Amino acid sequence: MTSLADKERLPREIVAMRVAKELPDGSYVNLGIGIPTLVSSFVPEGRAVFYHSESGILNCGPVVDLGDEEQEDIDLINAGGQYLQSIGGMSFFDSAEAFAMIRGGHVDVTVLGSHQVSAKGDLANWMLPQRGVGNVGGAMDLATGARVIVAMEHIDRNGQPKIVEECTFPLTGKGCVYLIVTDLAVIECDGQGLTLKEIAPGWTPEEVQQLTGAKLTISPDVGEFEL
User: Fold this and answer.
1) What is the pLDDT of residues 148-181, one digit of tens each?
2) Domains of the chain
3) What are the catalytic residues?
4) What is the 3-state secondary structure (H, E, C) of 116-171?
5) pTM reported for the whole predicted model
6) CA 187 to CA 163: how far, in whole Å?
């Protein structure tokens, strides 16, 4: 595992680009902290996506380019504290209404990072027990009120799999993840198991399996990432 853990994997931007392809036209989408915040910069041209934030924003633009101080508005930030571009038709409201939208099923898709995802699609993304700190934030509501795509690194900084048979970290939601996109693979979750659909260039399904802590079913038409 050590040698494979050192092998080159896809950059975060490619993971975000692959996730963006999954967002339906006209959908309402919530983006979590980390890789998910990058997704808004890669939505295919001609596709309309309405972004939602627990802080009380609907229909905001993508992340402001680094160094573009003219567009930096402290009142317009995403879950990761990054500045967002303003666009026509934006709406602002209080956090209670934002959470009511999630709990009422009005957010179609959420893209979240995670510490662990289980073979059954369980999500554990709010606490690292070894650090003893965590904040569930809006993830608990999103895991219940929206379809969940997880965007994350395939292994942690210690080389341990983040896709596991059973989560050992505190759960955010059970059986809520339907798609995992990592820097190595695209994996579908159907509640019963995991199917490997796409792999990073230069990798084999067998190598991806070695860095995965749960059994993968390899799709008959598995191929490289489709962007």
Assistant:
1) 999 999 999 999 999 999 999 999 999 999 999 9
2) 2-224 (3.40.1080.10)
3) 54
4) EEECCCCEECCEECCCCEECCCCHHHHHHHCEEEEEECCECCCCCECEECCCCCCC
5) 0.94
6) 10
